[in-house]
Amino acid sequence: MPLIVFLIAMIFAVPAAWADFSIEVVDGGGVGASTDVALNTMDAPVVCYYDETQGNLKVAEFNGGDWNLITVDSAGDVGLDCSLYLDPGDDPHVAYMDNTNWDLKYAYRDGGNWYTSILEEYGATGVGPSMKPGPNNLPRISFIYSSDEDLVYLWFTNTDYFEYTVDAERKVGGQTTSLAVGGTGLTYIGYNDDGAKTVRVARGNQSSWATVLVDGGNGEEVGWDLSLAVDADENLHLGYYDFTNGRLKYAFGPFGSMNVEVVDNDGWCGLPMDLALDQDGRPHLCYYDDGVQMVRYAVKVNGDWRRYLIDEGSHVGEDCSIVVDESGVVTIAYHDGDAGTLKVARGDASGMQQYGDDDTADDDTADDDTQTDDDAADDDTTADDDAADDDDVVDDDTTGDDDGDDTTPDDDFGGDAGGPTDVYDKGSSCGC
After folding, report:
1. d(Cα 266, Cα 247) in Å, to the nearest integer?
2. What proportion of the chain, given as a percentage, has pLDDT over 70?
3. Cα gap 289→270, rounded to integer Å
């Protein structure tokens, strides 16, 4: 066995029960304000993040014994809101913001070289990008066109990419979007309607979309931050922040009929947050508690939420990203704001004391904060209401392309500005 493979196997191919989390500092000097983590084919973590000191997009790859730190893009101030996936060859693909010009950018590695390109540069755009691969392993990206407060979907073919406005009817806000791709190939996008103060999910592909209400309104403002995943049964899992009550919430179920729960209401927690599913479809969440300055972790086991303290200190966890490997080992990448570092915690909570056990026994009982929220019974989160409510279906401008041609939609977003672009020809090597 080659040494590098042996080292990775020793470090990362661990038993499912670590019984704790190990924490290490990956990079420092004012970095990590935006993070996104993925696992390569050896279950070793790869993280994209923002270097706020230098204004650069960076990627950290664990190579079996150490972290390889790469400056991917240093052209101006770039790298906020980065979103990462790895292709079958373990090459990273990153969507991110040009923070100065409010442009949407894209970087990828091919043949050992990094290439960067601008995907959208007309007006204030590119806020809150979320990227996942489709069945063809090509990028699908959601983002907010801030100038018009629209939700936009972008997809790649082998040579071009195209954009479509998914929701122009509502005032799309919040800090991010979250995109997931189901086994059927359908794309799902979680997002915030800032006008109605609600969280919604859109479902579709290319230029045919529908959108439904999940939670919020009626005096509650939700969805400033959110994270969406879809399981093997095409059920949706959505974690999100309840701004009105300062708590972390979770919705689960098929599109149009999701039940709502409170995950954690201990302190002012849930912004920012992230969600991932394990091999059994169980939700795992990382999130920040702004009240006591800590990053926490929650997992749903046998119908109950179990919560754990991962790390604490001044501004620890101001951004976080989570992923779970096939053996159940959890990786959380997060920002230590006071130290200006990127940290990675790795392990599981099988032997850990649940958060609050030492002084708040109710945290582990079937009290209101671990059960289905009353909001789940409200009319605004049921499937029947969504079907009957005109505002839950996007109007004709989001179902315009009837020709079924995925590569040549009739009404690409932004007219000439958003039309077909050959991103591969357009890209330029960064020389990394």
Report:
1. 7
2. 78
3. 6
Contact 31, 53 (CB under 8 A): yes
The C-alpha atoms of residue 385 and residue 422 are separated, in whole angstroms, by: 42
| Residue 193, pLDDT score | 95
Give pLDDT, residue 122.
79
The share of the chain scoring above pLDDT 90, in percent, equals 69
pLDDT in tens, 171-193: 998 779 999 999 999 999 999 99
Residues 319-337 as b/e (b if ≥16 CB within 10 A, e otherwise) read: bbbbbbbebbbbbbbbbbb
Distance in angstroms (rounded) separating the CA atoms of residues 306 and 391? 36
Tokens read off for 104: 């949407």
Q: How far apart are CA 68 and CA 350, in angstroms?
A: 30
CA distances from 298 to 14, 63, 327 (A): 21, 28, 17
Q: Cβ neighbours of residue 2 under 8 Å, at least 6 residues apart?
A: none
| Structural class in CATH, domain 17-429 | mainly beta
396 pLDDT more than 50: no
Cβ-based neighbours of 66, under 8 Å, separated by 6 or more: none
How far is it, in rounded angstroms, from Cα 141 to Cα 226?
A: 15
Helical (H) or strand (E) element with 407:
none
At 208, the amino acid letter reads: S
Q: How far is CA 300 from CA 250, 261, 263, 307, in A?
A: 11, 11, 9, 9
| Cis? peptide before 254, omega within 30° of 0 | no
Strand partners, 130: 142
> How many Cα atoms sit within 13 Å of 217 on the Cβ side?
14
Q: 197 CB contacts (<8 Å, ≥6 apart)?
A: 216, 217, 220, 221, 222
How many Cβ atoms from other residues are within 10 Å of residue 232's Cβ? Answer: 11
Which amino acid is located at 289 in the chain?
Answer: D
d(CA 202, CA 158): 25
Residue from 329, 292, 345 nearest 314 by CA: 292
Question: Which pLDDT tens digit goes with each residue over 288-311?
Answer: 998 888 999 999 999 999 999 999
Of residues 268 and 14, the one with the higher pLDDT is 268
Residue, of 255 and 392, whose pLDDT is higher: 255
Q: Model's pTM, two decimal places? A: 0.82
